[in-house]
Amino acid sequence: TLELPTLQTLWQKLIDTRGAIGVDNTARVHEKDLVTLLKAARTGPLAQRSKKLPRDSDAEAADPAIQRLAEYGHQLSEAKRTDPSQLARERRRFDRLRNAGFEANKRGDTRSALRNLYSAALIKPSCAMLLSVANMHMKLNHPTLAAPLYYYVMINEGGTEHERSMAASKLKVANERAREHAGLPPKGLTPRPQQQQQQQQLVT
């Protein structure tokens, strides 16, 4: 039978290389955004804290106000990351974008919700925000864009047990839907000869 890479192998490659890849014909309009968000999650202040890395600066270590707000400074220049007023401004912007995203989702405007939640997640790329962005992608039927975010949260030691468990559960759904989009058989089933030819075109 045809040997195919597992979807989780593809997701891990995307996270490791920060390259846009997929296994279906989902519109690629959001792929660059996805790569940018994963990069922010891997390199931002929250990632540094979860890995117990040294502070970016002596000012962050010494100033309690900077310590409280540092998680909102990912998009700021190094100089502005030591300015409590700049960090506070980013926190207000984060709150505004996140609330706008939640409100849009309640109205059923999923695209606006995704746009606002994505912008908020770039400011503070926490596991909770990555889950929110992934959920919007699932609502828009973009499983290959949602799955890498779920996978990242699932393997992230900085996430809570609840967040990682939720991500694992939703990753299964995203994987199944991605396989359907790609014309792959359900997991555990051997593809028919006609399906094998189609799948060979997908992975070559």
Overview of the structural elements:
- By secondary structure, this protein is mostly helical.
- It has two domains: 1-44 and 141-204, no CATH class; 53-124, no CATH class.
- Helices cover 68% and strands 0% of the residues.
- The chain has eleven helices and no strands.
- The protein has helices at residues 7-17, 31-43, 45-50, 58-62, 64-69, 84-107, 110-123, 127-139, 143-155, 161-182, 193-203.
- Helix 6 (84-107) packs antiparallel against helix 7.
- Residues 18-26, 51-60 and 198-204 have low confidence and may be disordered.
Task: Provide keyphrases for this structure.
204 residues; mainly alpha; 11 helices; 68% helix; 0% strand
SS class: mainly alpha
Percent strand: under 5%
Largest sheet properties: none
Q: How many H/I helical runs? A: 11
Biased composition (Basic and acidic residues): 173-182
Region (Disordered): 166-204
Biased composition (Low complexity): 194-204
Please outline what is shown here.
Residues 194-204 have a biased composition (Low complexity). The chain is mainly alpha-helical.
Question: Topology, please?
Answer:
Elements lengths: L6 H11 L13 H13 L1 H6 L7 H5 L1 H6 L14 H24 L2 H14 L3 H13 L3 H13 L5 H22 L10 H11 L1
Helix pairs in contact: 1-9, 6-7, 7-8, 8-9, 8-10, 9-10
